[in-house]
Description:
This protein is an all-alpha fold. The chain is built from 21 helices and no strands. It has 2 domains: 16-198, Up-down Bundle (Growth Hormone, Chain: A); 211-409, MFS general substrate transporter like domains (Growth Hormone, Chain: A, Up-down Bundle), CATH 1.20.1250. α8 (144-174) crosses α18 (331-342). The longest helix is centred in the first third of the chain and has 32 residues, at 22-53. It is globular. The chain starts with 15 loop residues before the first helix and ends with a helix.
Amino acid sequence: MPEQLTAVAARPPGYARVLAVREFRAVFAAHLLSLLGVVVAEIALSVLVYDLTGSPLMSALAFALGFLPYVVGGTLLAGTADRYPARRVLVACDLVCAACVVPMAAPGAPLAVLLGLRCCLAVVSPVFAGTRMATLADVLGDGDLFVLGRSLLRITSQSALLAGYGLGGLLLTAVSPRQALLVTVGTFLASAALLRLGTRRRPARTRPDGALVMDSLKGARRILGDRRVRVLMLLFWVPPMFTVAPEALAAPYADELAAGPVGLGLLMCALPVGTIAGELYAGARLRPSTRERIVLPLVCLTLLPYLGYALEPGLPLSLLLLVLAGAGSAYTLGLDQWLVRAVPEGLRGRAMTLLTAGLMTVQGVGMALAGVAAEFAGVTAAVTGAGVLGTVCCAALAWEARRAGAAGLPSPAPGGPAAQGTEGRDGADRDMTDG
């Protein structure tokens, strides 16, 4: 266990333990700043594109471009997270993001430039997120503190989505979209400074193995080629693909209920509120062993509340169903522990980057499929169908996790498929230093 953790190891369980680690506080504050920067940029850019074009489609496209390139960055650039020192990668990602936003704020920037730079931000995002997640294991160890740290970052993300869009909208009442983008530049630069000054210098995890793209693809093959790691990745990816259905269809559903703008806002907030409540309870009240025991049962149950849509409930019951479904995502705390245990350190950065890219991609696919289903079958049938099909898929994955030995077992023996990713780590420790 790292030296700085020994002082907090004996404290009661809960999030206070991770916040007691000075280096984690720097990572946490940087995460919050980067997240606020992204939220403000999304709102300001959507408004700016609409002002320039008068087209709702182009405004929506500017927002959607934040999701689509994730798979590109997460697949082709994942090797960056392991072959270069983590602090250098994190600081560089923040600086690249700031450099992308500066031209957006320039007067007269053409639409093509705005959308192209938005794509660049989305390509960099999974590399930053994956490297940060891998760094948490260095800062907090790979035990319960890592799980709580990951959980706290997720809770912050969900909370920022609830508050950030409202604050961004409020900001745009006081300043122009281009001025709001300058605020985003400031948050990225502040995040870079925090990471540079508040985290330790650590060597790269692996020695570069050929060109970056080829190294990234080889890493992805090693990760997904291991049966146990693959099923754990799918346990992260598959439930959210179905979970997003009510959010994607919130506007037409609110219209069906005649709930108005307030009802739409409540429908959009209910799932994140449930997610925050479930994670807070599991992180603060449950023991690590309990969190691991409930992973597979919760995976199988988390989408069942969507079956209640078949009864065509009113707004209050719909909100309750969404809160319950969100609370089921507490299974991710135990799943985090399984994944960090199963992936060798030499592949950890690539695995976390791939995990982030896949998660964003499947949510985008899930939203699109929910829209297609609702077009033909109606909103309530689409959400109910997502609950049925999602529960079947989750149950099948839980069964496969048991068969593959992925549920809570120690990491693969040296020489196994995933272990190949640790090759050359000692050389990397000697040859590469942090900037």
